[in-house]
Design brief:
Radius of gyration: 23 Å
Helix content: 40-55%
Largest sheet: 7 strands, antiparallel
Strand content: 5-15%
Number of strands: 12
Structural class: alpha+beta
């Protein structure tokens, strides 16, 4: 879309009946963090009992590993409230963890062997055992190290008023939900086209502990720092690259985002297609299972993508079945590294930027993307991951070579227009202020998170592990000193106690063997 086209779209939203339609954006955040010992090594302790059951606590749970905590905020229209909730959840959990700390960066701490990473345990209920066996499958398919990487997931939905305004402006006569789903898919395609920008601005994993490689070969131009650190001088986000949360075995999955039916069909094909690679691993029907099943994907969640269309699922409903039932409800952004410069792992400036950037992705024209186009976006991301802060970096823009600086400046010029519309709607100035400040990062890569991280890491005179450990101790103290803003000790203790009761009820309700439960589960998918 040209700047003129975006200007035209924003002009159509300017009249009084549409001016405030964007108000009411809803967000939620999921932040992951490894529990570590005071010496910076991964914790071997069980999930803290005082925070409740990981299976049934909707605020504090675990991801792949028993030590990989996940903090989940409820949906809110207030970005400040969301960050306060995130802060409160981490404050409470730290107070229940003894002398353990939260690892403040995305790439894992020092881990001597992947067997030191204990799989998340969800109790003896059938659903709990299924969740652990799924993780056993991930370990045996991809190794535990990749799964110990932490990130921040940002969930966003636009208000119905905004969709109704856009539908009116476009003279769309179809159903509202179909219009919304098509709009979100357009957003996803544009996000994928310019995903490299997120890695450039907010990538914060240019360094790692050399234990992460565990003998794996890499062609990345690593430099060494101290005894145990490898870093990329001009890289941005190892988490998003080939060493990170990716899956080469899934490269054959040509999942496209041009229609909801097409997206769902691509995923459903993968969860029903036997895999030649994983055929030798025993599945749940075996006495000693190593995975749920032998298909390309055990379940839909195994599909790795930096952005996902989502709908809240009903009990027993898969993510894709929920999408087919009701259409897309919100978008999950999975491309954010943990922000090492704040205790919460994400800050208000990032949220303001994402509000503008995702609105821009929604409003601008979004042609369909074939597989080759998606591959080009992946290649651009890989370039920025390994050399995004180098001078005169060139990217592939619609089949032509273009410098990162030129493309980035073009994007920010359009983001300024979107920010102005949003500031006017909300009666604020922070959207334009955020875009103005971050636009300077295009010309000066040292202002980016990865630029700042490498500079501070070198200045510290220590290796990556010690540097991150010092941050972890600082943030523990900060959480301790910061009073609760939304929740309270008593509320979070009550939530923990209720989660224990809920897990007992799940156990009591089981009336099938584990194998019969999985037989029934997969028979309906």
């Amino acid at each position: 879309m040209t700047t003129h086209d975006l200007t035209k779209a924003l002009a159509a939203l300017a009249p009084e009946q549409h001016k405030y339609a964007i108000k009411g954006i809803q967000r939620g955040i999921e932040r992951e963090a490894l529990r570590i010992k005071p010496n910076g090594v991964i914790s071997q302790q069980s999930h803290p009992k005082e925070v409740g059951c990981a299976l049934t606590n909707g605020h504090i749970t675990t991801d792949f590993a028993e030590s990989l905590l996940e903090f989940i905020t409820p949906v809110s229209e207030s970005a400040e409230e969301t960050l306060s909730q995130l802060q409160d959840l981490q404050k409470f959990t730290l107070s229940q963890m003894g002398d353990e700390l939260l690892w403040p960066i995305s790439m894992p701490c020092f881990i001597e062997h992947q067997d030191d990473i204990i799989l998340a345990q969800y109790g003896d209920s059938n659903i709990g055992r299924m969740k652990t066996l799924y993780r056993e499958g991930l370990k045996n398919r991809y190794g535990s190290m990749m799964q110990a990487i932490a990130g921040v997931h940002f969930n966003i939905s636009f208000p119905e008023s905004f969709w109704l305004s856009l539908k009116t402006i476009k003279d769309d006569t179809g159903s509202l939900q179909e219009f919304i789903s098509a709009g979100y898919l357009g957003l996803i395609r544009n996000f994928k086209r310019e995903l490299w920008l997120i890695s450039y601005l907010f990538g914060a994993s240019p360094a790692l502990c050399n234990s992460f490689l565990q003998g794996r070969n890499t062609e990345l131009p690593f430099k060494k720092l101290g005894k145990g650190t490898l870093y990329l001088e001009v890289g941005t986000a190892l988490r998003l690259g080939n060493l990170g949360y990716t899956n080469s075995a899934q490269s054959s999955l040509k999942v496209l985002y041009n229609s909801l039916d097409g997206y769902v069909a691509g995923l459903k094909s993968a969860i029903h297609s036997p895999s030649d690679i994983y055929d030798q691993l025993a599945d749940y029907k075996d006495a000693q299972p190593k995975q749920l099943n032998k298909n390309v994907l055990q379940i839909e969640n195994e599909f790795y993508s930096p952005i996902r269309p989502k709908r809240n699922a009903k009990s027993g409903e898969t993510p894709t079945d929920a999408l087919l039932r009701g259409g897309i409800e919100y978008i999950e952004i999975r491309a954010l590294d943990v922000n090492p410069f704040v205790a919460t792992g994400i800050d208000i400036e990032q949220i303001h930027f994402l509000d503008v950037f995702l609105t821009y992705c929604l409003l601008k024209d979004s042609p369909t993307m074939d597989w080759d186009s998606q591959q080009r976006s992946t290649e651009n991301l890989d370039t920025v991951v390994s050399q995004g802060r180098a001078s005169k970096v060139m990217l592939n823009r619609s089949g032509s070579s273009c410098s990162l600086a030129t493309w980035g400046a073009d994007i920010f010029a359009q983001l300024q227009q979107v920010a102005a519309y949003m500031d006017n709607a909300y009666g604020v100035s922070y959207y334009r202020e955020t875009i103005t400040r971050l636009s300077q990062w295009i010309a000066d890569p040292e202002l980016t998170y990865s630029g700042r991280y490498v500079r501070q890491l070198k200045r510290s005179g220590t290796d990556n592990g010690h540097f991150a450990l010092s941050l972890a101790k600082s943030y523990q103290q900060q959480h301790q000193d910061t009073p609760y803003k939304v929740y309270s000790d008593s509320y979070l203790i009550q939530q923990a106690e209720q989660s224990v009761i809920a897990e007992r009820e799940l156990n009591a309700a089981d009336n099938q063997t584990f194998n019969a439960f999985l037989d029934a589960y997969f028979a309906t998918k």
